[in-house]
TrEMBL record:
Homodimer. This is 7-carboxy-7-deazaguanine synthase. The lineage of its organism: Bacteria, Pseudomonadati, Pseudomonadota, Gammaproteobacteria, Alteromonadales. Pfam families: Radical_SAM. S-adenosyl-L-methionine binds at residues 40-42, 97, 139-141. Pathway: Purine metabolism; 7-cyano-7-deazaguanine biosynthesis. It comes from Litorilituus sediminis. It catalyses: 6-carboxy-5,6,7,8-tetrahydropterin + H(+) = 7-carboxy-7-carbaguanine + NH4(+). It comes from the Bacteria. Its cofactor is Mg(2+); [4Fe-4S] cluster; S-adenosyl-L-methionine. Residues 21-225 form the Radical SAM core domain. Transmembrane segments: none annotated. Belongs to the radical SAM superfamily. 7-carboxy-7-deazaguanine synthase family. Binds 1 [4Fe-4S] cluster. The cluster is coordinated with 3 cysteines and an exchangeable S-adenosyl-L-methionine. Binds 1 S-adenosyl-L-methionine per subunit. It is an enzyme of class 4 (lyase).
Amino acid sequence: MNTVEYKINELFETIQGEGAFTGQPSIFIRLQGCPVACSWCDTKHTWEIELEDKVTKEQIIAKTQETSQWASFSPEQILSLFKVQGFKAKHIVITGGEPCMVDLTPLCQTLEKAGYSCQIETSGTFDVRTTKDCWVTVSPKVNMRGGYEILASAMKRANEIKHPVATEQHVDDLKSLLAKHKVTNTPVYLQPISQKQRATELAIATCIENNWRLSVQVHKYIGIE
Ligand code: SF4
């Protein structure tokens, strides 16, 4: 039995819309807390962990709107919740917020033991603490307001690198980062920011030029969470 608990903002079943697992039915676990402060962040409600926002597990499960409310769950409570909710997906996406602010090993061990595959989506600014079989998606957030550096350990652990782009500067930042950390074989996905036409055109051209892959946030096009 684990004594560790995780601060969860949201827990829901959907289709993974990004990166290598696009199209995969998945259970998303969104953790509360992120100090990275990306200007375009679409989950700003997950940034702060305020005690006054702590609610019951039932309130988190019943959530229908984006709020900064969170509740503590142990890995076993998360697992039993999947059964209560009748979730069918066998792939888990642990996201945030910044999930790697905490050690995810106990959570992933529990889930993997129960037959689930795990994926973490992280900004690469914290050490990735998880199981060896967990799929790690690093979406490096370079020069953000929070002032965090991308860690060499996170870049090394990445199974895929997913980079948001809107401008040439974003592409240059990514190329510098890959060169700095000598990343050559990890698949790279470019993701146009906010589905903007110019960002999408830039991403397509850059993917073709560098033999990278395009990730278009399918869930936003088909109108699911
Ligand atoms: S790392 Fe993710 S959650 Fe944190 S500010 Fe950036 S986009 Fe938002």
